[in-house]
Amino acid sequence: MKSKHSSTISNSRSLAIDKTIRLNKFLSNAGICSRREADELIKMGLVQINGQIITEMGFKVKHNDEVKYDGSRIQQSPPEYLLLNKPKGFVATARGAKIKKSVQELISSGVKTKIPSIGDMGRPITGLLFFTSDEILREKLNNSISIPMIYQVTLDQNITNDMMKKLKEGQMIFDKMQKVNTISHVDGKSKKEVGVEVHSISPAILQKLFASIGLKVIQMDRVVYGGLNKKDLPRGNWRKLSSKEIGFMKMFS
Known about the structure:
- The protein has seven helices and 16 strands.
- The chain is an alpha+beta fold.
- The chain has three domains: 20-74, Structural Genomics Hypothetical 15.5 Kd Protein In mrcA-pckA Intergenic Region, Chain A; 81-144 and 228-251, 2-Layer Sandwich (Alpha-Beta Plaits), CATH 3.30.70; 148-225, Alpha-Beta Plaits, CATH 3.30.70.
- The strands form four sheets. Strands 7, 8, 9, 12, 13, 14, 15 and 16 form an eight-stranded mixed sheet that branches. A four-stranded antiparallel sheet has the order 3-2-5-6, with no helix packed on it.
- Strand 14 and strand 15 (228-229) form a beta hairpin.
- Helix 1 (23-29) crosses helix 2.
- It is elongated and about 65 Å long.
- It starts with 19 loop residues before the first strand and ends with a helix.
- The model is unreliable at 1-18 (pLDDT under 50).
């Protein structure tokens, strides 16, 4: 895994002078890789602290230490919080491999380094995608079961009231019961189009949920994520969150 040379890497939080942070967490906060991948980079001798190669697992980084990865200095800076209205054709994934038409290309004009998204989103899916380099918030949101989300979904056939009832009662998906909170037809649209409200259900799981009752998703658009919506955010555009919105997102974690 390569980093961009001469880049400024975001850290998830400012550290007081007397505080330390584990090296693998420091690298993960910087958006370079996951903690597990960071351990491998450290073992390979690709990380230096104050000019010394560190291969020790669990090494602690101090606030004033100079950390380099593959020869490039990692500088600490405040965490970033972004919201993207993702268009079709781009993909968001936590996998380390290089991806063609990654969502990172869409936000690269305004950020100096890679900022991870919360959750994956496949190429056909559109709508809201939240990014942050705040590792503490990211970890909590990834494990949260209380984030309200609203999707607009187009199906391959009309959905009946009985089908909607089954989705609200729940279906087993990957050995876990998944269900929608509310579901209804969209006013003025065909019976193939529905609005769906869920809590912390990814697009991929929602597609599986529809498939479990014999329906195929043709189009899916996430229009609400947490307290965030698409107002004044055209498809393909992104913006930074306000301090009020950041505080609101932290309530869901």
